[in-house]
Amino acid sequence: MREGPWEEIAQFGKKIVSSGLTSSIFGNISILREGRIFITATGSMLDELDSSTVIDVDLKQPCEDDRMASIETCVHRAIYLGTGNTAIIHTHSPYAVALSILEAETIEPIDSEGVLLLGEIPIIKGRLGTDMLARTASLALKSHKACIARGHGVFAAGNSLRDAYTAACMAEHSSQVRYLVRCYPEGRGRGLDQD
């Protein structure tokens, strides 16, 4: 039997917090089902979600229930309307956020898995919950699995929450590896070109 939307979202909320991708009330999760967006409520703890903290909103346009949903609902809506994705995870992953401040336009993974499975991670502009962030995230996720809002956090998308979670984990892992290599001036770049 298929899980209900809130149960599936709650499962990944626990995974996101336990893996250190976000903490406290930061981040949000949504899935698209039958033309409706199911998204975490504003201010909800992602590891304590229940049926009252997942809000059902309209896909096509803002609606009355948007006021209870995450402030990033407009971003999720734009991503769904602009891409073929059906699941989104937004985290405040520390290494990805740090690198989004340090790097110029993209984060280029240097770990083998990141290079092979993720590719470059665009750094996008836009304050949280704004139309600009909605536009830039939607555009970036047309051709990438994840993007990072500068100084804010990762938006990862896929055809399932599992896909989006994997992309969010990969974005943070690749960001962490790149950050740690940057912090080690004596060995910077050594061995990266070896087969």
Explain this structure to me?
With 195 residues, the protein is α+β, with helices and mostly antiparallel strands. It has one domain: Class II aldolase/adducin N-terminal domain (L-fuculose-1-phosphate Aldolase, 3-Layer(aba) Sandwich), CATH 3.40.225.10. Helix content is 37%, strand content 19%. The protein has helices spanning 5-18, 73-82, 94-102, 112-118, 131-140, 161-182; strands at 28-33, 36-40, 54-58, 87-91, 106-107, 121-124, 146-149, 153-158. The chain has an eight-stranded mixed sheet with strand order 3-2-1-4-8-7-6-5, sandwiched between helices. The longest helix has 22 residues, at 161-182. The radius of gyration is 16 Å and the shape is globular. It starts with a helix and ends in a 13-residue tail after the last helix. The model has no long low-confidence stretch (mean pLDDT 92).
